Amino acid sequence: MTANQSDNTKPLRIALAGVGTVGVGVIKLLDTNADLVTARAGRPIEIVAVSARNKGRDRGVDLSPYAWEDDMTALAARGDVDVVVELVGGSDGPALALARNAIAAGKSLVTANKAMIAHHGQALAAAAEDKGAALKFEAAVAGGIPIVKGLREGAAANSIERIYGILNGTANYILSTMEHSGADFGATLKDAQELGYAEADPTFDIEGVDAAHKLSILAAISFGAQIDFDAVDCEGISSVRAADITQADALGYVIRLIGMADVEATAGESPALLQQVKPCLVPKGHPLAHTTGATNAVVAEGNFSGRLFFQGAGAGDGPTASAVVADIIDIARGETGSPFSIPTAQLVPMTRAVSDNRTGQAYLRFTVTDKPGVLAEITAAMRDADVSIESLIQQGRANDGGEVLVALVTHDGPEGNISKAVELLKGSESLTAPPLIMRILSE
Amino acid sequence: MTANQSDNTKPLRIALAGVGTVGVGVIKLLDTNADLVTARAGRPIEIVAVSARNKGRDRGVDLSPYAWEDDMTALAARGDVDVVVELVGGSDGPALALARNAIAAGKSLVTANKAMIAHHGQALAAAAEDKGAALKFEAAVAGGIPIVKGLREGAAANSIERIYGILNGTANYILSTMEHSGADFGATLKDAQELGYAEADPTFDIEGVDAAHKLSILAAISFGAQIDFDAVDCEGISSVRAADITQADALGYVIRLIGMADVEATAGESPALLQQVKPCLVPKGHPLAHTTGATNAVVAEGNFSGRLFFQGAGAGDGPTASAVVADIIDIARGETGSPFSIPTAQLVPMTRAVSDNRTGQAYLRFTVTDKPGVLAEITAAMRDADVSIESLIQQGRANDGGEVLVALVTHDGPEGNISKAVELLKGSESLTAPPLIMRILSE
């Protein structure tokens, strides 16, 4: 047994910052599952103090057993707290101040805050290591799925060749709903908002920013790379139309918002990290194609393990609380190693990979005016950019705006050529909107 | 940091018992991924000694850097070994002797031996805890999938309501091959043997024994139950015919060999553990239906996490080595807690649950003689046992033996009634073989 485990039979004392749905979930979990959590942690886990914006609000749980702090940062200074659980959110501001102060005071920090970890995780990890404190963020990536642990420990023996998956439940809900209903993006988003699957301001979810936060965290753990959120090449799903989903279906694919990262190692050069969040065509035989609704899923390809697939609820109070308390149990057991698997000082800076040389198939969809010569113009651009076309579909009927869709699937070829073709078509009077380009995921 | 982590910057010294395909995989992994394993483990991992039956055999790896022991048990006595890795196999015999001796000598044990853990895991765990040594067996369940860690740590905050999955790659390979080829069981098994997917004596795989070993381990971790391999209700796939797969397909299902465990808690009574390995009908929309070939997959349903799904290679040198080395890295990091998540002394003895009161839908298939009155006899038995029939399919044409298949799907109802119906039909001259009964997994 480790020193922590044998020494500590005393309760592990928790402070909770933020008592929204997830915070309430944590309180309920620690109450409902108290006995088994104690048995698995090796000692009781006790909430001693809480802080939130509104003390009086009815949350359906009794907060009176816990000390209350109006100023959340005061939780970091309490002598009776071992672990601060940050459930406030926001990459900076009060959450970051609390995290910094808690770690500076030698306390361990558990957080569900993907934006904060994506932006400041590396500095916080270095500070935590310096203090011998734990920094844990299982709940920050893919909700209840133990993917941080899966990569950091479960797949620890592997060189990860590629990590990719469905990292945003709202976007996946919208895409898979469009698949079944045939409705367009706008209407589906509106429904999702009414049903509570999308927020009033859905930007972070539908534009891929939330997925990019998570991807940058997974990439750091997978590749031993310094976190580089700003280098994520990010594109959302708002340009995906019902017609694209229909076309994809006819070709044997579904459309998913995929976050993907891998490393290009070229002899003599520093490694280059590719990080992309983009809507992709996924073959129906691929496990990600069967990931529907608000579910998340991650594929990790290890050089010895082969493909590992993890799937589960990507959000929600129960799943997120499950991940938060798993981290707390780890700390109670004495598991306080490097947050990103290797010591933070050893994380390697990587350049941003250019995807131009990547080869693969792609789906291109153009919205064009309904007039002669348009197809010739598009196919000529493809030819001139050396893009080989596997199939081309023109949706015959113009819609109310006199607009016609032309979709094509390319043969395997460099992505750079596609960019070149699109560049050649820029400014064309035939195109009524920028084309939508989606990579086709290999089986 | 724990004492182990901060104290130990010295190499962790390994002895390898068994240098077959998996042992060679471990040697290759530790060589290929040496730098990243050292970084993630916090210190180098060094093989110092090996033992196997045949010293001279060419394994494609150089064993000369390591001390050689003719007697495997001698590895446990070596003063220069911290961790013994047992890759010999067999529930008893040399593997068990080595495991006992290693732990008695205060060494940690890592094993891929599901039979040994299913039969002796609890005693070994108690001994390891007593000595402050680690006992780890990630590779014993579902190959490269980190499911032991996923349950023991990732889902640690949850009361697990049910654990189930595809735990044998050979059986799954055979069933999913039958699905695509339309061939019968015997021919498919023969092909699988020729291709190396099934062993010369495939009994443990096709009769569900191997899956039962794994299930009993997962059940102990999930439910805090004492391991009870003998209580697994076990049925193999050799009775499954091509016609069953065709019928299932027409009804919207595939057939999979499913290991499943859950706990029935009745107030005032000791909890009852249900453990079953049986071929089941799986709805095509369920993630287990998309688990094909030699792949394994496990579903854990937690009371807060909801459904967690893990999928990956169930066997093979690379995936198994990945799991073995993940355990070694854990030990290097100082993670040496209770093997079954809670202290072994706290594992609860559970009675064997009777499934008669379970309700659900079932698929029944009768092989009958081609004569009048057979259907009336079967349906009368169903009526008399209070089994409600949703659909009934008679395969019209008799085969060479004058045998006809009658398949039916029941409405939701108690399993006990089905047993009763089958009992009523026992001894009937119309039936040419015992009926095949398969549960239908709910979505």
SSE blueprint:
Two copies of one chain form a homodimer.
Chain A: H1 3-7, E1 12-17, H2 21-32, H3 34-41, E2 45-51, E3 67-68, E4 83-86, H4 93-104, E5 108-111, H5 114-131, E6 135-136, H6 147-154, E7 160-166, H7 169-181, H8 185-195, H9 203-206, H10 209-223, E8 233-234, H11 242-251, E9 253-264, E10 272-283, E11 295-302, E12 306-313, H12 317-333, E13 351-352, E14 359-369, H13 374-384, E15 389-394, E16 403-410, E17 413-414, H14 415-425, E18 436-440
Parallel strand pairs in A: 1-2, 1-4, 2-3, 4-5, 5-6, 8-10, 10-13
Antiparallel strand pairs in A: 7-9, 7-11, 9-10, 11-12, 14-16, 14-17, 14-18, 15-16
Helix pairs in contact in A: 2-12, 4-5, 5-10, 7-8, 13-14
What does this structure look like?
Two copies of one chain form a homodimer. By secondary structure, chain A is α/β, with parallel strands linked by helices. The first copy, chain A, has three domains: 3-140, NAD(P)-binding Rossmann-like Domain (Rossmann fold); 147-313, Dihydrodipicolinate Reductase, domain 2 (2-Layer Sandwich), CATH 3.30.360; 358-440, Alpha-Beta Plaits, CATH 3.30.70.260. Helix content of chain A is 35%, strand content 24%. Chain A has helices at residues 3-7, 21-32, 34-41, 93-104, 114-131, 147-154, 169-181, 185-195, 203-206, 209-223, 242-251, 317-333, 374-384, 415-425, and strands at 12-17, 45-51, 67-68, 83-86, 108-111, 135-136, 160-166, 233-234, 253-264, 272-283, 295-302, 306-313, 351-352, 359-369, 389-394, 403-410, 413-414, 436-440. In chain A, strands 7, 8, 9, 10, 11, 12 and 13 form a seven-stranded mixed β-sheet that branches. A six-stranded parallel β-sheet of chain A has the order 3-2-1-4-5-6, sandwiched between helices. In chain A, strands 14, 15, 16, 17 and 18 form a five-stranded antiparallel β-sheet that branches. Chain A starts with a helix and ends with a strand. Strand 12 of chain A pairs antiparallel with strand 12 of chain B.
